[in-house]
Design a protein that fits this description.
Elements lengths: L21 H12 L11 H7 L9 H12 L8 H16 L5 H15 L17 H4 L14 H8 L10 H15 L6 H11 L11 H12 L3
Helix pairs in contact: 1-4, 1-10, 2-5, 3-4, 3-9, 4-5, 4-8, 7-8, 7-9
């Protein structure tokens, strides 16, 4: 049986000297976080504003917002988990690499702002019948008493779709990121949050092995060479 302690966290890979090459950065954020917005990672006018607020960049509130979005993603689609995962991945990239170039950090912040603003290709753009907007995915959940004993339920839910690849392993990616946050911060393990993520896991047994997002990723990585 899979438990939350047996899953390798996708953000744990280290690079020599804590240097993160541009292509590696794009691969890391695009694969684990799904920073897939309509366009490529670039500095925008909003990124300039983000640079001036580096004292508490990518703060812990991103984790809570990311979990809330993962918990509501099942209302859209199995791939809507990208939106919440992007917040979580952005936070851990910044925490594990405190020496990030300010321009890269600002780029991450700007992409996360755009994800929350409805520019992700995996949000309502993909699930037009959804009654929730992308921004509503991130809204706070009702206050509940956290229960760390519920965390293993996510791994148990994942086990039902891990017999073969599902949508390019996004079930594993999303579950691993959620478990990582909840193990680090069990105070976020509200029953409604865990239940929502488990409902997201229930969508995967019916999904195909591969999702066409690998084509988006290939284009995203190629475009990054021009940044």
């Amino acid at each position: 049986m899979i438990s939350s302690s047996t899953l390798d966290h996708p953000m744990d890979q280290q690079f020599p000297g804590n240097k993160l090459p541009r292509r590696a950065f794009v691969r890391l954020t695009a694969v684990t976080g799904g920073l897939a917005v309509a366009g490529r990672l670039t500095r925008s006018t909003h990124a300039d504003d983000a640079v001036s607020n580096t004292s508490d960049n990518l703060e812990r509130s991103y984790l809570e917002a990311g979990l809330n979005a993962l918990a509501r993603a099942h209302h859209m689609s199995s791939m809507a988990g990208h939106l919440g995962a992007s917040m979580i991945a952005g936070y851990y990239i910044a925490r594990q690499r405190p020496d990030l170039d300010p321009a890269i950090e600002a780029g991450i912040q700007d992409d996360l702002r755009r994800v929350r603003g409805g520019e992700s290709v995996f949000g309502q753009r993909m699930s037009r019948a959804s009654k929730l907007t992308d921004a509503e995915l991130f809204e706070p959940v009702a206050k509940q008493k956290a229960d760390a004993k519920l965390i293993d339920g996510i791994a148990e839910g994942l086990q039902k779709s891990i017999d073969k690849p599902r949508q390019s392993a996004h079930n594993v990616i999303f579950a691993s990121l959620a478990i990582r946050v909840l193990q680090d911060h069990p105070e976020y393990a509200a029953p409604s949050v865990v239940d929502g993520i488990m409902k997201l896991m229930k969508l995967y047994p019916r999904q195909p092995p591969v999702f066409a997002c690998h084509l988006l990723l290939k284009s995203f990585i190629q475009d990054s060479d021009d940044i």
